[in-house]
Amino acid sequence: MNAAINSLDELLTHAHALEHEAVERYEELAGQMEVHNKPELAQLFHKMAALEQQHVDKVKSLAGGQPRRLAPWDYSWQTEESPESVPVGGGHYRMNPYQALSLVLASEERAESFFSGVATHTTDPVVRETATQFALEEKQHAELLREWLTRYPKPAADWNQDLDDPVSQE
Q1: Which residues contact 117 (CB under 8 A, 6 or more apart)?
Q2: Cβ(45)–Cβ(22) under 8 Å?
Q3: Residues 18/83, Cβ–Cβ less than 8 Å
Q4: Number of other CB atoms surrounding residue 73 within 10 Å
Q5: What distance in Å separates the CA atoms of residue 116 and residue 130, rounded to the nearest whole number?
Q6: How many other C-beta atoms can be found within 10 angstroms of the C-beta atom of residue 166?
Q7: How does pLDDT run across 82-108, given as a tens digit for each residue?
Q8: At what angle do helices 39-63 and 97-121 cross, to 10 degrees?
Q9: Quick one: how far is CA 71 from the chain centroid?
Q10: Domains and CATH numbers, the chain
């Protein structure tokens, strides 16, 4: 974390951006899976987007409306993207449910870590309590995803090998 978050407004600003980016990325991944005829994965990503949208709505409710936005460089993320966003390029058209769930799980774990860090470093008791609650919600999502992971076999190490790489038509 770049700096301590010591106001509820600042926490809700960060939480809204984090959750909103997660919704967008999950919808992007769902669309990619639909294009590659992976309906089970598309459905999974749509479901995760809907769960994250519930968080967006909760944050808006806590903020009493649309939270303010910051310039991208003013957010207290460890990376260029918010912690809960699946990294650009993280998806692969050959991934199976195990890989998809692993991507989503890592995102939920990063979000939990972010909110736990806010709770640990803040001087404001309201921010601490709210961030702790957000971290708990992310932890519950991660636990659910770990359970879902047990339903699918772990892929072979060469799962993403493509013997027919795409070639430009130009």
Answers
A1: 1
A2: no
A3: yes
A4: 8
A5: 10
A6: 7
A7: 888 877 777 666 777 888 888 889 999
A8: 20
A9: 20
A10: 8-67+78-149 (1.20.1260.10)
